[in-house]
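Protocol step 4 of 6.
Sequence for Thiamine diphosphokinase (Aureimonas fodinaquatilis) entered exactly as in the expression construct, tag removed. Do not edit the line below.
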Amino acid sequence: MTVLVVLMAGEIAPTAQLRAFVQGKTVIAADAGIRHAKALDVKPTLWVGDFDSTSAELLAAFDHVEKRSLPREKDITDGEYAIVEALALGGTELLIVGALGGARTDHVFSNLVLASSYADRVQRLVCFDGREWVYPLRHDQVLSHEARAGVQFSVCKFSAIGNLSIRGARWPLYNVDVPFLSILTQSNEALGPVEIELSSGRALAIFEAN
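Step 5 output, structure tokens:
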């Protein structure tokens, strides 16, 4: 399994858990996402973007990193381009850092759409910012998350979902069809390790960090 880390520009909490999560991995930075490299003690091997949100200080500090410059006007975000590059390098597991927080809610939404879109192209895709874990749910896999008792989590949907099962939770579900506009799957609580599976639809499981 080839594991690659993609650094995006959203806010992170550089906890010991997050730093351990990225150590020893090949790292690709998307534009201003490279600002997380120092806090996480990683050395990106590739830096992609139009660099419109990258300061002169960052450009100088990381001028030794191979750069792939993109036009400002394009139909793909810098983050998606970084994901594409990770796949081109043979990545079979993607760890996306910096996709979840920041001043632009539309950027966060776009990143979650990207995570859901590319999850089927790799063996595993997960977003982690030190505060929350986000897993796109796949029809061919059971998601297992090693939560401690009391951890809050939700299943957030992009569509109606079919045959949803949630095990190891305070409010379990078994083979339930959930309409898109239902909030049935918001704010659950882990009793310990949690398993989630579904047979149709698009959704994300979001867990607070242990």
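Step 6, annotate. The chain has five helices and 13 strands.
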